[in-house]
Every structure is written in structure tokens, then in C-alpha cells.
Write a structure and sequence with these properties.
The chain is an alpha/beta fold and 302 residues long. It is 39% helix and 16% strand. The chain folds into two domains: 85 residues, 3-Layer(aba) Sandwich (Rossmann fold); 135 residues, Rossmann fold (3-Layer(aba) Sandwich), CATH 3.40.50.720. The strands form three sheets. The chain has a six-stranded parallel beta sheet with strand order 1-11-8-7-5-6. It has a three-stranded parallel beta sheet with strand order 3-2-4, with helices on both faces. The longest helix is centred in the first third of the chain and has 23 residues. The mean pLDDT is 97. The chain binds NADPH dihydro-nicotinamide-adenine-dinucleotide phosphate (NDP). The site of NADPH dihydro-nicotinamide-adenine-dinucleotide phosphate (NDP) has 27 residues, from helix 10.
């Protein structure tokens, strides 16, 4: 294998250690303990795992962590009313509603019901707008922020490089494009965004210095689609059948890892790449929300 592995777990652990130290300082100096509420509606197995990971990580950091599991039959009205209560609760600084939600609940109404000051997922239009215009006092969405942070801490500067993102969802592709195109350290890339209507996808991906796969298709990015020496970030999390694995399934990314690792200069693994970074950035956002609630700037001075 030629490519260097970009170890998201190691970098995420570094960030979590910083967040834990920041949380201890906030509590000892200002008497505020960061608090997060994570809401799961229904019993989607993957969501259960994500929510459990978030709760475990928050607890390990010394945060107040509240997991609220609601039945799939929960009405939109009941969920919005719960969000209203959490918006008012002083001990809770960050609120996250795990997606996907049952079909009868409008995700957009849910996003709008969360106080932007507690929107640690960074999905509220106010925070999305701040990201786009380059204001750093809002909340960045955790997965795109995790990608940018992983690159920065791995010594890869996107400035002036051609970044090609495959996927244009509101939670990954679009905000990542907005982040990488900012006139700012860790960004300044020239960005191309591809999607399901893109003609000749490979012609675009082959021109990428930085290729980010966020299309939700197992191993769709093959070695022929990658420019030799490119840095490849795999956001995808797909469950594929594997009779040899526990539970008969295993996780793979959107990139054909083994083959692409022969061509790329650096690559993120799945699992152990972007996934752990996403949780680390969620915890950092929760600390930032708690600092703001204490009347402090969201970020500590370096
Ligand atoms: P969505 O399904 O919302 O979006 C997928 C995007 O990929 C769409 O823009 C779609 O295009 C595009 N696309 C789909 N198929 C193709 C194709 N064949 N060629 C080109 N573009 C294509 O997915 P998400 O953004 O929510 O997630 C993407 C992946 O990232 C998933 O595997 C998901 O599990 C994973 N993920 C991982 C996270 C982490 O923490 N690591 C967090 C969030 C997601 P169009 O817009 O035209 O439909």
C-alpha cells in the first residue's frame, strides 16, 4: 500500500482530550458544566449505535449527557414541544436530534425548532448562513468540520488545491464545499461539487488533488477515478453483507479502499476515519455552546 493512512481515531482522541480540558476549566472557573441532549425517535439500529456513541463520549468528557428515546409513533407536535423545553433548560447547551426521523415528522420543522444557540449539529439556517459568509461564531456541521480538521491536523493544506466533492447533501457535501472555499486558513481550495446528475464523474474526480467521497454508495470510487498522489477522504458509511462478520454485515466506505490506497498519497479508512472526527466535533461544539451560555467567546484564545 502506497498511501499514508489518515487516522481519524487518533486525531479525534487529541481533540477530545482538548475538549475535556476545556470543559474542566469552564466548570472550575465559571461553574458551568457542558450539557447535551441527544434525541432518538424510533428504533433504527444504526441510529441506536450513533446515539449510544455520542452519549458515551459526552459522559467520558464529564458532560451532562441526556439521552431521550422516543417511540416511532411520537407526533411532530410532541417532538417540537420537547425541543421547546430543552431550548429553555439552562443545564442543556447542545441539542441533537438523530436522523433519519420517521416519515411523518418534517425534519425541516425540527431543525427550525432548535434554538440556533444550542444547534450543535450546525443544521439551523442561521448557522448554515454564518458558515457560508465565513462567520466563525456559529456552529459548523460536525462531519464537514471533522474532514477539514482532520486534513489540517494531518498536515494537508487545501489552499490553492483542487478539491472535488462527490455528494451535495445539506449535511455533508454542500457545507463541506462552503468550508473548503472559504478565504481562511485550512481552506482556500478550488472546489468542484459532483452529484448524481454529473456527466462523466471520473473526468472530474481524476482532476482532484483532494477527493472527498460522500455519495453513500459502497466502494463507488475506484482506483481509475483517482489521480495518482491525491489525498482521498472517505465520508461514506455503508453496511454490506459479509457472512464472515459478526452480525453478517460490515462497514465499508464510498471508496474502494484497498485499490485506491495504491494510487493515493493519503487516505482515510472506514471505520476509523471521518466517523470518530464527527463525534469529536460534536463535543467541541457542545463545549463552545456552553462557553457562550457562560458569556464567554465560543472558542478559547489559543
Ligand atoms: P445523501 O444520500 O443525502 O446524499 C448523497 C449525495 O451523493 C447526493 O448529493 C447524491 O446526488 C450523490 N450521489 C448519489 N449517487 C451518486 C453517484 N452515483 N454519482 C455521483 N453522485 C451521487 O447522503 P449523505 O450526504 O447524508 O451521506 C453520504 C455518505 O456519508 C453516506 O454513506 C453516509 O452514511 C455517510 N455519512 C457519514 C457520516 C460520518 O460521520 N462519517 C455522517 C453523515 C453521513 P443527488 O443530490 O443528485 O441525489
Amino acid at each position: 500500500m502506497a498511501a499514508r493512512i489518515l487516522d481519524g481515531r487518533r486525531v479525534a482522541d487529541q481533540i477530545l482530550a482538548e475538549v475535556a480540558a476545556g470543559a474542566r476549566r469552564l466548570e472550575s472557573e465559571h461553574g458551568v458544566r457542558p450539557g447535551i441532549a441527544v434525541i432518538l425517535v424510533g428504533d433504527d439500529p444504526a441510529s441506536q449505535v450513533y446515539v449510544a456513541n455520542k452519549e458515551r463520549t459526552a459522559t467520558a468528557l464529564g458532560f451532562l449527557s441526556r439521552k431521550l428515546v422516543l417511540p416511532a409513533s411520537t407526533t411532530q407536535e410532541a417532538l417540537l414541544s420537547l425541543l421547546g423545553e430543552l431550548n429553555r433548560e439552562r443545564a442543556i447547551h447542545g441539542i441533537l436530534v438523530q436522523s433519519p426521523l420517521p416519515r411523518h415528522i418534517d425534519e425541516r420543522a425540527v431543525v427550525l425548532a432548535i434554538d440556533p444557540a444550542k444547534d450543535v449539529d450546525g443544521f439551523h439556517p442561521l448557522n448554515v448562513g454564518k458558515l457560508l459568509i465565513g462567520e466563525r461564531d456559529g456552529f459548523l456541521p460536525c462531519t464537514p468540520w471533522g474532514v477539514v480538521e482532520l486534513l489540517a491536523r494531518s498536515g494537508f493544506d487545501p489552499a490553492g488545491r483542487h478539491a472535488v466533492i462527490v455528494g451535495r447533501s445539506n449535511i455533508v457535501g454542500k457545507p463541506l464545499a462552503a468550508l473548503l472555499m472559504q478565504k481562511a486558513p485550512g481552506a482556500d481550495a478550488t472546489v468542484t461539487v459532483c452529484h448524481s446528475r454529473t456527466h462523466d464523474l471520473a473526468a472530474h474526480t481524476q482532476r482532484a488533488d483532494l477527493l472527498i467521497a460522500a455519495l453513500g454508495r459502497p466502494r463507488a470510487i475506484t482506483a481509475e477515478m483517482v489521480k495518482p498522489g491525491a489525498v482521498v477522504v472517505d465520508v461514506g458509511i455503508n453496511r454490506v453483507p459479509d457472512p464472515a462478520a459478526k452480525g453478517g454485515q460490515r462497514l465499508v466506505g464510498d471508496v474502494d479502499f484497498a485499490a485506491v490506497a495504491e494510487v493515493a498519497s493519503a487516505i482515510t479508512p472506514v471505520p476509523g476515519g471521518v466517523g470518530p472526527m464527527t463525534i469529536a466535533m460534536l463535543m467541541r461544539n457542545t463545549l463552545r455552546a456552553a462557553r457562550r451560555a457562560a458569556g464567554l467567546p465560543a472558542d478559547e484564545a489559543p
